[in-house]
Amino acid sequence: MLIRDSRDIQALDWEKTDGLLPAVVQDAFDGRVLMQAYMNPEALAHSLDSGKVTFWSRRRDKLWTKGETSGNGLRLVAVHADCDSDCLLVLAEPGGPTCHRETDTCFDARKPVRPGLAFIATLERLVAQRAADRPKGSYTTQLFEAGVKRIAQKVGEEGLETALAAVAGEREELGNEAADLLYHLLVLLHASGLNLEDVVKILESRHQPA
Ligand SMILES: [Zn+2]
Q1: Is-contact 30 114, C-beta < 8 A?
Q2: What is each CA distance from 51 to 81, 124, 126, 139, in whole angstroms?
Q3: How far apart are the CA of 94 and the centre of ligand 1, in A?
Q4: CA-to-CA separations, 55 to 25, 67, 142, in angstroms, rounded
Q5: Could you give the CA distance from residue 174 to residue 163 in angstroms, rounded to a whole number?
Q6: Is the distance from CB of 37 to CB of 102 less than 8 angstroms?
Q7: Taking the CA of residue 174 as centre, how many other CA atoms within 13 Å lie in the half-sphere pointing to its CB?
């Protein structure tokens, strides 16, 4: 159930858990589970009103807007309740590392568990980071320095190589070329001021249920 307003908040099962519901925070873009904390009705209302994910701190006994001290806030995208209305799933966009250890998620520092497909979102973030930092010796840096025209040429080449591998029935080669193509496409999109989400939205809009 999508939680939108005070009526939705009142409909939740606060009694069962003494007025605090566990809130699992999930990255709205790549689906990774970022953290878990607790919300009372006030924290949930504040999250909805402000668009900033806010919990109830049991230790400090007051509202705690994530990021108010660290600066790494969570922009609220949506809140859903589970099937029996006693647990919250919070979809959010992290403004930085969510965990106090400076890792993206509280659940694992080095190798976050993420659905395989979501790696492409992670790769896109790395590409954006490379574009901002331009580390020396990085191939991605070289591409950004060379400019859109050169990157577009690489996308064309990799597209052709992908097509040729498919026609030749070379499955392994096809996989490799498709990986090259996707990577160069991410770089091209970023260099052109677009991102994967823009493209995915277009795909989604073509598949609206009738
Ligand atoms: Zn943590």
Answers
A1: yes
A2: 17, 25, 26, 38
A3: 13
A4: 11, 11, 43
A5: 8
A6: no
A7: 9
Please give the biggest Cα pair distance in the chain: 66
Structure pTM? 0.60
Tokens encoding 122:
């992670």
Q: Locate 2 and state its tokens.
A: 């999508």
Tokens (6 digits) for 176: 């490799």
pLDDT digits (tens, 9 = 90+) for 67-88: 988 888 999 999 999 999 999 9
Segment 104-120 shows an average pLDDT of 69
Give the DSSP letter string of 136-163.
TT-HHHHHHHH-HHHHHHHHHHHHHHHH
Question: How high is the pLDDT of residue 115?
Answer: 56
Q: CA-CA distance, 181 to 155, in Å (whole number)?
A: 6
CA–centroid distance, 35 to ligand 1, in Å, is 7
Question: In sequence order, what are the beta bridge partners of 88?
Answer: 23, 81
- What's the first-to-final CA gap in the chain, in angstroms? 22
Could you identify the residue written with the tokens 């277009």? 202
How many angstroms separate the CA atoms of 209 and 71, rounded?
Answer: 39
CA of 37 to the centre of ligand 1 (A): 10
